[in-house]
Design goal:
Shape: elongated
Helix content: 10-25%
CATH topology: STM4215-like
Number of domains: 1
Radius of gyration: 17 Å
Structural class: alpha+beta
Number of strands: 6
Distance between the termini: 12 Å
Number of helices: 2
CATH architecture: 2-Layer Sandwich
């Protein structure tokens, strides 16, 4: 049986490189922060993985949903700039992924428009990390990977 066509380490690395290259985040993490973040911080984590609806008869493609959480202290001044700062960061992430739609050949696509399910999207909220309150923008990063599992009769 052929090896799966899903290199999770390379996908994480590629996305973290994209995020760092934007130059908008004070820190970029490949995990949830355990200590209070300082400045505008991005954290990339896994969410769900499931078979893709566009799979064929010989192989199953997958939809790997990652979560990018963007953190900024709710005490940041001026407070009126918190959400616009986060939206600007989200827009730069979207532009970067639109410009490298297949992440250097690691994916079939970033499912920007939701052909396989929920599109690239963000939801605002708040979270407390070891005391301080943070404004949070949770971004769904839907990734489609071709032919991850070979189907056998």
């Amino acid at each position: 049986m052929a090896a799966p066509n899903l290199d999770a380490a390379a996908i994480w690395s590629g996305l973290l490189s994209h995020l760092k290259a934007l130059g908008v985040f004070a820190d970029v993490l490949g995990h949830e922060p355990v200590d209070p973040p300082v400045g505008l911080v991005a954290a990339l984590t896994g969410d769900t993985i499931n078979p893709g609806t566009s799979s064929g008869l010989g192989a199953t493609s997958t939809r790997l949903n990652l979560v990018l959480r963007i953190y900024l202290s709710a005490d940041t001044e001026p407070r009126d700039d918190i959400d616009p700062t986060m939206v600007t960061a989200f827009a730069k992430v979207g532009a970067s992924l639109s410009g490298d739609f297949d992440l250097g050949g690691l994916l079939r696509e970033v499912d920007l428009l939701g052909i396989e399910g929920e599109p690239l999207s963000g939801r605002f909220g708040y979270v407390r990390i070891v005391g301080p309150l943070y404004r949070l923008l949770t971004v769904q990063l839907p990734l489609v990977c071709n032919d991850v599992w070979t189907q056998a009769p």
